[in-house]
Amino acid sequence: MAKRPTDTDTNVNRIRSAVDEMTGLADPDDRMLGVLELLTPSSAREVIPGKIYLFIYNAKTPNILYDSNPFIAVTDVFQWGFRGLSAHWREPRQYTWSEVGSDVYEIYKSEVRDILRLSLMNKRLNN
Questions:
Q1: Which of 23, 75, 82, 84 is paired with 50 by a 20 to 30 Å CA distance?
Q2: Is the pLDDT of residue 88 over 60?
Q3: Is residue 89 classed exposed, middle or buried when 0-12, 13-18 and 19+ CB atoms within 10 A define those classes?
Q4: Assign residue 58 a region: left if phi > 0, alpha if psi is -120 to 50, beta otherwise?
Protein backbone atom coordinates (compact mmCIF):
# COMPACT_ATOMS: atom_id res chain seq x y z
CA MET A 1 0.00 0.00 0.00
CA ALA A 2 1.31 3.44 -0.91
CA LYS A 3 2.28 5.79 1.89
CA ARG A 4 -0.18 8.67 2.33
CA PRO A 5 1.32 12.18 2.10
CA THR A 6 1.55 14.36 5.20
CA ASP A 7 1.85 18.11 5.76
CA THR A 8 5.62 17.75 5.86
CA ASP A 9 5.80 15.89 2.55
CA THR A 10 6.07 18.98 0.35
CA ASN A 11 7.09 16.88 -2.63
CA VAL A 12 3.63 15.23 -2.73
CA ASN A 13 1.60 18.43 -2.52
CA ARG A 14 0.33 18.81 -6.08
CA ILE A 15 -1.32 22.18 -5.42
CA ARG A 16 1.17 24.35 -3.53
CA SER A 17 3.34 25.32 -6.49
CA ALA A 18 0.35 26.85 -8.31
CA VAL A 19 -1.48 28.51 -5.41
CA ASP A 20 0.19 31.93 -5.75
CA GLU A 21 -0.48 32.25 -9.49
CA MET A 22 -4.11 31.10 -9.14
CA THR A 23 -4.91 33.29 -6.13
CA GLY A 24 -5.24 36.37 -8.37
CA LEU A 25 -7.86 34.84 -10.66
CA ALA A 26 -11.19 36.55 -9.98
CA ASP A 27 -13.48 33.71 -11.07
CA PRO A 28 -13.67 30.69 -8.71
CA ASP A 29 -14.48 28.48 -11.70
CA ASP A 30 -11.18 29.48 -13.34
CA ARG A 31 -9.31 28.61 -10.13
CA MET A 32 -11.21 25.32 -9.91
CA LEU A 33 -10.30 24.34 -13.47
CA GLY A 34 -6.67 25.24 -12.78
CA VAL A 35 -6.62 22.97 -9.72
CA LEU A 36 -8.34 20.08 -11.52
CA GLU A 37 -5.64 20.18 -14.21
CA LEU A 38 -3.08 19.36 -11.50
CA LEU A 39 -4.95 16.35 -10.12
CA THR A 40 -5.74 12.80 -11.21
CA PRO A 41 -9.43 12.15 -11.94
CA SER A 42 -11.43 9.17 -10.71
CA SER A 43 -14.96 8.13 -11.55
CA ALA A 44 -17.55 9.69 -9.23
CA ARG A 45 -18.79 6.18 -8.45
CA GLU A 46 -15.41 5.46 -6.86
CA VAL A 47 -15.80 7.86 -3.91
CA ILE A 48 -14.76 6.30 -0.62
CA PRO A 49 -15.91 7.34 2.87
CA GLY A 50 -13.12 9.02 4.79
CA LYS A 51 -11.51 10.58 1.71
CA ILE A 52 -11.63 14.22 0.61
CA TYR A 53 -12.70 15.24 -2.89
CA LEU A 54 -13.22 18.17 -5.26
CA PHE A 55 -15.67 17.97 -8.17
CA ILE A 56 -18.09 20.03 -10.24
CA TYR A 57 -21.76 19.80 -9.28
CA ASN A 58 -25.02 20.91 -10.92
CA ALA A 59 -27.91 20.81 -8.43
CA LYS A 60 -31.30 19.55 -9.55
CA THR A 61 -33.43 20.74 -6.61
CA PRO A 62 -35.27 23.94 -7.61
CA ASN A 63 -34.59 27.16 -5.67
CA ILE A 64 -31.67 25.70 -3.71
CA LEU A 65 -28.47 27.59 -3.02
CA TYR A 66 -25.60 25.26 -3.88
CA ASP A 67 -21.86 25.24 -4.45
CA SER A 68 -20.89 24.28 -7.99
CA ASN A 69 -17.33 23.46 -6.81
CA PRO A 70 -17.81 21.23 -3.74
CA PHE A 71 -14.87 20.41 -1.49
CA ILE A 72 -16.04 17.61 0.78
CA ALA A 73 -14.97 14.83 3.11
CA VAL A 74 -17.18 11.88 2.15
CA THR A 75 -18.98 10.28 5.10
CA ASP A 76 -21.49 7.93 3.42
CA VAL A 77 -22.03 6.37 -0.01
CA PHE A 78 -25.49 5.24 -1.15
CA GLN A 79 -27.11 3.81 -4.27
CA TRP A 80 -28.41 7.32 -5.15
CA GLY A 81 -25.19 9.23 -4.40
CA PHE A 82 -23.14 10.26 -1.40
CA ARG A 83 -23.04 12.55 1.63
CA GLY A 84 -20.14 14.46 3.07
CA LEU A 85 -18.99 17.34 5.22
CA SER A 86 -18.54 20.42 3.04
CA ALA A 87 -15.47 22.50 3.84
CA HIS A 88 -17.15 25.45 2.11
CA TRP A 89 -20.54 25.28 3.85
CA ARG A 90 -19.10 23.80 7.08
CA GLU A 91 -22.03 21.39 7.28
CA PRO A 92 -23.12 18.06 5.80
CA ARG A 93 -24.36 18.13 2.20
CA GLN A 94 -25.51 15.39 -0.17
CA TYR A 95 -24.82 14.81 -3.85
CA THR A 96 -26.67 12.61 -6.33
CA TRP A 97 -24.72 10.69 -8.96
CA SER A 98 -26.56 12.22 -11.93
CA GLU A 99 -25.75 15.79 -10.85
CA VAL A 100 -22.01 15.25 -10.40
CA GLY A 101 -20.79 17.15 -13.47
CA SER A 102 -17.21 15.89 -13.58
CA ASP A 103 -14.92 13.17 -12.37
CA VAL A 104 -13.97 13.43 -8.70
CA TYR A 105 -10.49 14.45 -7.62
CA GLU A 106 -9.07 13.17 -4.34
CA ILE A 107 -7.35 15.79 -2.20
CA TYR A 108 -4.65 14.68 0.23
CA LYS A 109 -4.71 16.01 3.78
CA SER A 110 -1.43 17.79 3.06
CA GLU A 111 -3.23 19.80 0.33
CA VAL A 112 -6.34 20.89 2.28
CA ARG A 113 -4.89 24.18 3.51
CA ASP A 114 -3.81 25.14 -0.01
CA ILE A 115 -7.23 24.30 -1.48
CA LEU A 116 -8.94 26.43 1.17
CA ARG A 117 -6.62 29.36 0.37
CA LEU A 118 -7.89 29.33 -3.22
CA SER A 119 -11.53 30.05 -2.24
CA LEU A 120 -13.05 27.74 -4.83
CA MET A 121 -16.63 28.01 -3.54
CA ASN A 122 -19.08 29.23 -6.19
CA LYS A 123 -22.56 29.72 -4.71
CA ARG A 124 -25.38 29.49 -7.19
CA LEU A 125 -29.15 29.55 -6.94
CA ASN A 126 -30.76 26.78 -8.97
CA ASN A 127 -33.68 28.45 -10.73
A1: 23
A2: yes
A3: middle
A4: beta
